[in-house]
Amino acid sequence: MNTPYEARLMRVLDYVYANLDGDLSLDTLADVAALSRFHFHRVFTGMTGETVAAFTRRVRLFRASMALVQGDDSIERIAGYCGYGNPRSFVRAFQNAYGMTPEAFRKRGVPQPELQFNERGAYEMYDVKLETRADIRLAVIPHIGNYMNVGEAFEMAYTTLATRGFSPQIGQMIGVYLDDPAAVPEAELRSFAGAEIIGHADIVSPLQEVQIQGGKFAILTYQGHYMGLAKAYAYLFGDWLPQSGEVPRDSPPFEVYLNTPQDTAAEDLITLICAPLQ
């Protein structure tokens, strides 16, 4: 069941993502939430486990990290549309979060493992294992559009579950990706962002229930910024699968996140790509 404050927090999350270059002060966000500015921060932190400042800084800098490696906008321009009017303060905040300047981050690009030949002369890039897993019940928020922008849906799903008191029943954070970005226009990409639910819990709007059928899976372990996941998918489906003799099930792949950008450096993020097999 919805809690009285759930809709207020959802408005705040939507507003932050839509206005990264705008006024995200406590007073402004308190107005968005329609809560007293004297109590808003305590409510937000108590319900999400994160201060407003930490949340807005994390979202702004993660958006900046994607802009640095996806495009060629100047650092000053990126700083501006990510909410930093002073480029120096942006550089300082980015370096504190990522351990390097924005210029160094852009020059490095998305780190990728070097191609290595094994003794058989075949490429080895990622660790892939075969595992049998049980059915998984998910509580999710649907997302349409660029998969790199699915973070807002994860924020909404996790916050909704937390405000409903389901934290003890939340398992792994999982994203289900229904379309291939190489075959479907970016604006039409469909995905679900949420978490495994352990035990019984009533999943009601705005959450949706998604069932992942258990069985045999190919599981690839990827480490690094989410921007590099496309290359891991290419390896799994374009190299490993054809050579494995396995046949994929008529079911979409999903990702399991063993940690999150909330408390982990981008290069240390661990993602499991799970492909259902017959």
Automatic annotation (TrEMBL):
<protein>
    <submittedName>
        <fullName>Right origin-binding protein</fullName>
    </submittedName>
</protein>
<keyword id="KW-0805">Transcription regulation</keyword>
<feature type="domain" description="HTH araC/xylS-type">
    <location>
        <begin position="10"/>
        <end position="108"/>
    </location>
</feature>
<dbReference type="InterPro" id="IPR009057">
    <property type="entry name" value="Homeodomain-like_sf"/>
</dbReference>
<dbReference type="InterPro" id="IPR050908">
    <property type="entry name" value="SmbC-like"/>
</dbReference>
<dbReference type="InterPro" id="IPR010499">
    <property type="entry name" value="AraC_E-bd"/>
</dbReference>
<dbReference type="InterPro" id="IPR018060">
    <property type="entry name" value="HTH_AraC"/>
</dbReference>
<dbReference type="GO" id="GO:0003700">
    <property type="term" value="F:DNA-binding transcription factor activity"/>
</dbReference>
<dbReference type="InterPro" id="IPR011256">
    <property type="entry name" value="Reg_factor_effector_dom_sf"/>
</dbReference>
<dbReference type="GO" id="GO:0043565">
    <property type="term" value="F:sequence-specific DNA binding"/>
</dbReference>
<keyword id="KW-0804">Transcription</keyword>
<dbReference type="Pfam" id="PF06445">
    <property type="entry name" value="GyrI-like"/>
</dbReference>
<dbReference type="Pfam" id="PF12833">
    <property type="entry name" value="HTH_18"/>
</dbReference>
<dbReference type="InterPro" id="IPR029442">
    <property type="entry name" value="GyrI-like"/>
</dbReference>
